């Protein structure tokens, strides 16, 4: 028996926290028995997800409703996310970014695909982290993203990827 492992980026994590386009498809997919493994993300994606929530709070929610209501919505979403991390629904797995060799690979991928360091770090983590030995097996890790540039770069690095906004679930 095999299980499919999933890494989520901030764009996918947001779909689990805020109802937006693609949320329902992603939620249905991860409820499927074949996809019921824990989700993983890098620590940088944790910070990026919190930053996206903050941006939504400041630029959208606080303009659409009273500030205290928007802040409550923001804090509730952050609390749900922290609960997912505490409950291990989403587990944080990293490789050492400060290692010179690791960072050189991140820098190379960022330049090759015009990515930011956080996205390039995710790809290097998938290629060299704890899931690397599973490449080429039925348990190979899939990156779940709603970022078409990141999805294209992942495919360029021969990684399994699901663009949960533009593609049907694998």
Which features would summarize this protein structure in a list?
single chain; 170 residues; alpha/beta; five-stranded parallel β-sheet; globular
Descriptive account of the structure:
There is one protein chain. Strands 3-2-1-4-5 form a five-stranded parallel beta sheet. 55% of the residues lie in helices and 10% in strands. The two termini are 18 Å apart. Helix 1 (10-17) crosses helix 2 (23-31) and helix 3 packs antiparallel against helix 4. The longest helix is centred in the N-terminal third of the chain and has 22 residues, at 43-64. By secondary structure, the chain is an alpha/beta fold.
Brief summary of the model shown:
With 170 residues, the protein is of the alpha/beta class. The protein has helices at residues 10-17, 23-31, 43-64, 67-86, 100-113, 117-128, 148-156; strands at residues 6-8, 39-41, 90-92, 142-145, 160-163.
């Amino acid at each position: 028996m095999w299980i499919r492992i999933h890494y989520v980026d901030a764009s996918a994590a947001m779909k689990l926290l805020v109802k937006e386009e693609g949320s329902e498809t992603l939620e249905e997919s991860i409820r499927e028995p074949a996809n019921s493994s824990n989700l993983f993300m890098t620590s940088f994606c944790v910070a990026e997800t919190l930053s996206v929530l903050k941006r939504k709070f400041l630029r959208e929610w606080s303009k659409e409703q009273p500030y205290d209501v928007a802040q409550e919505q923001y804090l509730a979403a952050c609390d749900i996310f922290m609960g997912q991390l505490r409950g291990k629904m989403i587990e944080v797995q990293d490789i050492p970014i400060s290692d010179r060799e690791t960072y050189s690979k991140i820098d190379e991928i960022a330049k090759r695909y015009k990515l930011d360091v956080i996205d390039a770090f995710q790809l290097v983590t998938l290629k060299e982290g704890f899931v690397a030995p599973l490449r080429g097996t039925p348990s190979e890790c899939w990156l779940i993203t709603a970022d078409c540039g990141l999805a294209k770069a992942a495919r360029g690095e021969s990684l399994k990827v699901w663009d949960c906004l533009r593609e049907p679930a694998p």
